C-alpha cells in the first residue's frame, strides 16, 4: 500500500473501531447490537422490538411508526379531522402519542406512555392485531412484538 495512503486509512479504521461503528452483531433491538470498540453514545438499550408493522388502510393524515429504542413502542400522530380510537386509547385530532402493548387475559391492547420505554416483554414472539376506528372508518394494525432478542 502506498505510504501516503496508509496513514489516513489506518486513522479511519482506528476511528471507526473506537467509535463502535464496526457492527459485529446487528439487531432491531438496540440493546442487542454488538460492535467493536466503545459503545456509541445514546440512550437506546431495548432488548425487545416491534417488527413488520402494517397499517390498513393507509390514510395520508395518520402516521403510525415504530420506536424500538427502549423495547418497542408505537408512535402515533393523528393529523386527521376525527378522533382515532386504537386498542382502547383515544387520540384526538392533532395529537401525538406513544403507545405500549398491554396483555390482559390473552387479549392485546394499547396504553399511552410518556416515553419510549416499553414494559411489555413477551415470553415468545407474538403476532398482534389491533382494530380501531378513525371516525367511521375501521383501522387495523398488525405487527410482531418480539421476546428478548438477547440477554
Short précis:
By secondary structure, this protein is mainly beta. It has one helix and eleven strands; from the N terminus they run αβββββββββββ.
Structure description:
It contains one helix and eleven strands, in the order αβββββββββββ. It is mainly beta and 151 residues long. It has two domains: 3-36, no CATH class; 50-145, no CATH class. It has a five-stranded antiparallel β-sheet, with no helix packed on it. The chain is globular, with a radius of gyration of 20 Å.
- Class by helix and strand content? mainly beta
Describe the largest sheet.
5 strands, antiparallel
Number of domains: 2
> Could you tell me the radius of gyration in angstroms?
20 Å
Shape: globular
Beta percentage is 35-45%
- Percent range of helical residues: 10-25%
pLDDT < 50 runs, ≥5 residues? none
- Strand tally is 11
The total count of helices amounts to 1
Distance between the termini: 42 Å
Strand order of the largest sheet: 3-11-10-6-7
Order of helices and strands: HEEEEEEEEEEE
Mean pLDDT: 86
Amino acid at each position: 500500500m502506498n505510504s501516503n495512503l496508509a496513514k489516513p486509512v489506518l486513522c479511519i479504521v482506528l476511528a471507526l473501531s473506537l467509535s463502535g461503528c464496526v457492527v459485529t452483531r446487528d439487531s432491531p433491538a438496540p440493546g442487542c447490537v454488538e460492535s467493536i470498540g466503545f459503545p456509541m453514545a445514546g440512550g437506546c438499550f431495548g432488548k425487545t422490538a416491534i417488527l413488520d408493522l402494517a397499517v390498513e388502510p393507509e390514510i395520508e393524515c395518520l402516521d403510525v411508526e415504530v420506536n424500538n429504542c427502549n423495547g418497542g413502542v408505537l408512535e402515533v400522530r393523528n393529523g386527521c379531522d376525527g378522533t382515532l380510537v386504537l386498542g382502547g386509547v383515544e387520540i384526538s385530532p392533532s395529537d401525538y402519542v406513544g403507545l405500549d402493548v398491554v396483555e390482559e387475559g390473552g387479549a392485546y391492547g394499547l396504553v399511552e406512555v410518556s416515553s419510549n420505554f416499553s414494559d411489555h416483554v413477551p415470553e415468545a414472539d407474538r403476532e398482534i392485531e389491533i382494530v380501531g376506528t378513525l371516525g367511521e372508518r375501521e383501522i387495523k394494525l398488525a405487527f410482531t412484538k418480539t421476546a428478548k432478542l438477547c440477554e
